[in-house]
Write a structure and sequence with these properties.
The protein is an alpha+beta fold. The protein is built from 7 helices and 5 strands, in the order H-E-H-E-H-H-E-H-E-H-E-H. The protein has a single domain, classed as NADH Oxidase, CATH 3.40.109. Helices cover 38% and strands 15% of the residues. Bound molecules: flavin mononucleotide.
């Protein structure tokens, strides 16, 4: 398949569609390295990835349960949080470091780099034959979890789960989902009716 068609075929995979084997270390490494090709103003490197291995899922579950407890959840809520640590054959934390002390690189530019890196990671996993999905959730916003993953000044942006697409049948609902309609204003031409007196210009 031509490369553009392969990229256009990428879809997020639901957790139930992802099975073992997980992407091997060299696939994750290649994906993380491609993520580093995102445009990065002043090379601030605002993103890194933390892999959570199978052996560490139980510890992550206890961390999620503790975070749920801090949020005031009862034993049932804590158990649900615990179980979320086992989602996905492979699990990565996407850790962002957004600085507010770089005059020429405001936070929104750094977040754009994080997003671009994330997209490159997803595309690299897809092109290497693995399914993946980005997940957020309250654990990503928990200070308890943040402290266990992040250095000072960092935060968890989101999680990525990845694995082998279960089988053609199981993957079909997602894989064959029709693409979203392209908005008419997705790509337009600027009309330069800007005026020096501050009158609004015409944005495409
Ligand atoms: C930062 C971020 C967090 C997300 N968190 C969740 C989530 O917690 N649960 C969920 O079902 N989808 C979440 N999504 C959306 C999915 O990852 C995915 O983009 C969506 O299901 C659309 O699928 P598509 O990528 O095939 O278009 C999140 C997306 C982003 C970018």
């Amino acid at each position: 398949m031509p490369l553009l068609a392969q990229l256009a075929a990428r879809r997020s995979a639901e957790p139930r569609e992802l099975t073992a084997p997980p992407p091997p270390p060299e696939v994750l490494q290649a994906a993380a390295e491609l993520a580093m090709r995102a445009p990065d103003h002043q090379a601030l490197r605002p993103v890194r990835f933390v892999h959570v291995g199978q052996q560490e899922r139980a510890a992550l579950g206890e961390l999620f349960a503790r975070a749920a407890q801090v949020r005031g959840r009862d034993a049932v809520g804590m158990q649900m949080a615990r179980e979320r640590a086992f989602v996905g054959p492979a699990l990565l934390a996407v850790v962002a470091r957004i600085r507010d002390d770089v005059a020429d690189v405001p936070p929104h530019e750094q977040w754009l780099t994080v997003g671009a890196a994330l997209m490159n990671l997803l595309n690299a996993l897809h092109l290497q034959g693995f399914g993946a999905k980005v997940l957020g959730g309250s654990a990503a916003r928990s200070e308890v979890v943040r402290r266990a993953f992040c250095h000072e000044g960092e935060q968890i942006a989101c999680w990525v789960i990845a694995g082998t697409l279960a089988d053609a049948q199981a993957a079909a609902p997602t894989a064959t989902r029709p693409p979203a309609p392209i908005p008419r204003d997705l790509l337009g031409d600027w009309t330069p009716d800007w005026a020096p007196d501050g009158a609004p210009g015409g944005m495409p």
